[in-house]
Amino acid sequence: MSRVSVRRGVATHRGRVRDHNEDSVLAEGTVAVVADGMGGHAAGEVASAIVTETVAELLQPEVEGSPRRADVVAALERANERIRESARRHREQAGMGTTATGMALVADGDREQWAVFNVGDSRVYRLVAGALEQLTTDHSEVQEMVQAGVISQEEAAVHPLRNLITRSLGLDPMPEVDVRLLPAEPGERFLVCSDGLSNELSSDAMAAIVAGATGPQEAADALVRAAVEAGGRDNVTVVVLETEAGGDDRGSALD
Ligand code: MG
Predict the structure, then answer these.
(1) Is the model's pTM score more than 0.85?
(2) What is the pLDDT of residues 207-254, one digit of tens each?
(3) 122 CA → ligand 1 middle, Å
(4) CA 121 to centroid of ligand 1, rounded, Å
């Protein structure tokens, strides 16, 4: 018996500048992942789709019980290997890569925890007292400059190098995956998004939209609409998760 069940909303949009959408998204049961692919000749969407397809294996019934933290990391390692394998077989995919960011409910002893994971600069936020707290740390050049005290967070948001990421899937060796465990509690709201959302909207604007929505699907739709209206310079993808008390196991998560 799970302590929490999950309601979720998902939305994605090509935006107003790009001619196709290289983001991929999975939100099913108690797993959510956003992958922001990169690479020419539509290879970015191949890489990001490999992530969502591979992470979806955490939901397969032959996986006994809830996945564990190590299963989440192993899924991302498999995705990394499959991206490299596909790029080896298809020359036009050479150099493709993707972010992989999200959360999965995992068993940790007899406790249930959210494993919040990240490779790249897609993000997970939690809504706390009406404000968004970023749970992931971007793997980007500008974030390293912020941490080194060279530029401020405000300068990072508009810095010309803000799209340069320092970790992604599709690399050899596989980059380290950040994983943070948080106790799963009812009554929480989370956001998983690609940078097409967080680059267009301030976290205050995002928080106001989530707090004002009547449910997770309305929140996801409103966030994507606002990012597209604000410029839509990149593909925009968002998952909104709301946790509720009770529920059964993964299969019973509410739609
Ligand atoms: Mg992007």
Answers:
(1) yes
(2) 999 999 999 999 999 999 999 999 999 999 999 999 999 755 444 444
(3) 8
(4) 8
